[in-house]
Amino acid sequence: MTSTWSVRDTGSTAEADAETLPSVLARWARTRGADRAFTFVDYRDDPAGAPVSLTWRELDDRVSAVAQWCQRHACPGERIAVLVEQSLDYVIAFLGVLRAGSVAVPMYEPSPLPGHLTRLATALADAAPSVVLTTRRHTDAVHDFLDEHDLDAHLVAVDVLPHRPGEEFRPPALSPDDLAYLQYTSGSTRNPAGVMISHGNVAVAAAQTVRVYEGTPGSEVVSWLPLFHDMGLIVGLAAPLMGGLSSTLLDPLAFLTRPVRWLELMAEAGRAITVAPNFAYGYTASRTTDEDKAGLRLDDVATFGDGSEPVVESTVDTFYARFADCGARRSMFRQGYGLAEAVLLVSSSPAGEPPKPRTFDRELLAAGRAVEVASGSTLVSAGQPVEQRVRVVDPDSHRVLPDGRVGEIWTSGPNVCRGYWGRPEAESAAVFRAVARDADGREVEPYPGCRGWLRTGDLGVLVDGDLFVTGRLKDLIIVDGRNHYPQDVEHTAENAHPAVRRHAVVAFAVSDETGEHAVVVAERARQVPPAELDRAEVAAAVREAVAAEHGLAVRDVVLIEPGELPRTSSGKVRRTTCRAAYLDGALVTAA
Questions:
Q1: AMP-dependent synthetase/ligase domain: from which residue to which, for each copy (predicted)?
Q2: Where is pLDDT greater, at 510 or 321?
Q3: Considering the domain boundaries, does residue 223 fall inside one?
Q4: Range among 248-262, 505-519, 522-536 with highest mean pLDDT value
């Protein structure tokens, strides 16, 4: 008899079989073996794209072949790192590790991108994998990288392994409680930490994602998000697999080089589902020409999901204004909130409803109260909880706050993970199994069957049932006893002068013996040549705009070159890293 995971809460009922991703893959191979499962469109040699596909049966065979090799070279429960480029080989390698009963460490091949090598080395040293999977194309680079960092692991290229397992292969029985993989966080506010994700966590989260975006067998997902990233892994791989959806993948670089490719694949797929960070929509609108748009029809797209960072209303408006004549509608948009520790989704907006912006008094919001006004700080709703319980909690007293009060977002559900790899149990318990209390000091019950609440580290407010994310708890700029949200200051700064590059500004606070002071670091706009850049004029414009809008004095304005702001793999700016670089004197001012 098949056991079930309960995903039930007041007002909703949903059940997800306690199957694992490998067992679901085997089921699709038996029942829909000839149907297309995953496609990768390769733009490296052909600008028009060269698609390569696998059926469910082909994928199942390739996964079993990798799993059989892993069984011979690693014991159950040992870590196996996936250092594979975006491709079908990544899908095969990741699922092969899971089917073998080992613990996957989804990462990426050594890359010259800023900060990637350091984060890769840090994560691998923490995970200590006994085996590393890569491809022939990167074997030499991975070997040299492992040798340089004294990482002892058996290395193999998955694309040289047989495409079918031997007859003696027997996959181990997997339990929902077994550890499936370590999802290393992007490190936007701390060093990368390995979130321990069980087979049950990922199965529940993938099923939630399918239901939220109303996927059905035969529906298609289109994703350029990196598969080592939490959103890319769930949206591009786990959710399609769990729901029997076909998935079309492309490389992030192919998207960044020509973002209309993303939309073209969506148009070809019909009722397609996609999810991307907020910046991607503004980037696509600004980098798509009228010639690119010729013949592009988006009328049948099912969902444009927006997550991974706060949704900015102007970015949404820009995207839909640009593509309205192609059939894009605001009702296609789905905004949400999530994080790796909850295996992606925490909340999402309802299907068919346009984004829901609300404007709050900026000073009162910074002081912890959401009061609607005609002009102030506009936030877009991140929707309602997805089959879990969400509360806004005072981060110091751990008391649940009433609606309209800003606090830390806490969540509880079967998708919430067990803790951080290699960290003391007390540290994981404080984050993943916190105790919330009501105004009278009584414990607030977590989700049925769950132990405590996950502290997200994000600030938010509940208003009329909708969750509005206001910022990161650690990113608040506190000067002269007043709170300022960095994203508000960044928005003002990027509009203060044409020489400031849009969506490439960081604001943070620094301390000295006289107190806290605000600093703004911004990239130079590409259309402004370095020789024509008047740094004093730009700095004065930024200071004046921030002072007028926020009553905040900016001590220093630093202009750096385009592309030099440190970012996470999903494109979010790394404020903590930037602040550390500023304090170390490592930021080079634009000439």
A1: 26-421
A2: 321
A3: yes
A4: 248-262
H or E, element range at 23? helix 21-31
pLDDT at 11: 33
Ranges of beta strands (E only) in 128-201 are 131-134, 154-157, 179-184, 194-198
* Beta bridge partners of residue 379, listed in sequence order: 358
Domain with 328 in it:
270-355
Domain harbouring 416, CATH code: 2.30.38.10
Q: Using CA atoms, how far apart are residues 50 and 249, in angstroms rounded to an integer? A: 12
Whether pLDDT at 26 is above 60: yes
Percentage of the chain exceeding pLDDT 90 = 75
DSSP helix, strand, coil percent of the chain (3-state; round to 5): 35, 30, 40
For residues 321 and 382, state if they share a domain: no
Q: Is residue 467 part of a domain?
A: yes
User: Strand pairing partners for 222?
Assistant: 248
Token readout for 357 is 């912006």
Tell which of 299, 334, 355 closes a domain.
355
Q: Predicted confidence band at 575 (pLDDT cuts at 50, 70, 90)? A: confident
Domain at 482, CATH number: 3.30.300.30
C-alpha span between 226 and 454 (Å, rounded): 25
SS3 82: strand
Least confident of 215-229, 305-319, 463-477: 305-319
Instruction: Tell me, yes or no, whether 94 and 231 share the same domain.
Output: yes
Residue 374 lies in a domain: yes
Asked if residue 521 and residue 461 are part of one domain, the reply reads no
Report in angstroms the alpha-carbon separations of 175 from 28, 118, 199. Answer: 19, 34, 7
Q: How far apart are CA 346 and CA 387, in angstroms?
A: 8
Question: Count of domains in the chain?
Answer: 4
Band (584; pLDDT cuts 50, 70, 90):
confident
Residues 6+ apart with CB under 8 A from 120: 83, 107, 108, 110, 111, 145
Do 42 and 187 have their domain in common?
Answer: yes
Asked whether 269 and 258 are in contact (CB, 8 A), the reply is no
The enclosing domain of 181 has a CATH number of 3.40.50.12780
Containing 94, the helix (H) or strand (E) segment is: helix 88-100
Q: Does residue 4 form part of some domain?
A: no
> CA distances (Å), 256 to each of 10, 307, 391, 571, in order?
42, 18, 37, 11
Q: What is the mean pLDDT of the chain?
A: 90
Whether residues 332 and 365 fall in one domain: no
Q: What one-letter code names the amino acid at 452?
A: G
Interstrand relation of 303-307 and 272-277 (parallel, antiparallel or unpaired): parallel
Among the candidates 223, 257, 291, a domain finishes at 257
Residues 364 and 481 in one domain: no
Please state whether the predicted TM-score (pTM) of the whole model is above 0.70.
yes
In this structure, the answer to whether residues 30 and 154 fall within a common structural domain is yes
Q: Is there a contact between 326 and 298 (Cβ–Cβ < 8 Å)?
A: yes
Do 96 and 82 form a contact (C-beta atoms < 8 A)? Answer: no
287 and 436 housed in the same domain? no
Please check whether residue 509 is in contact with residue 479, taking contact to mean a CB–CB distance below 8 angstroms: yes
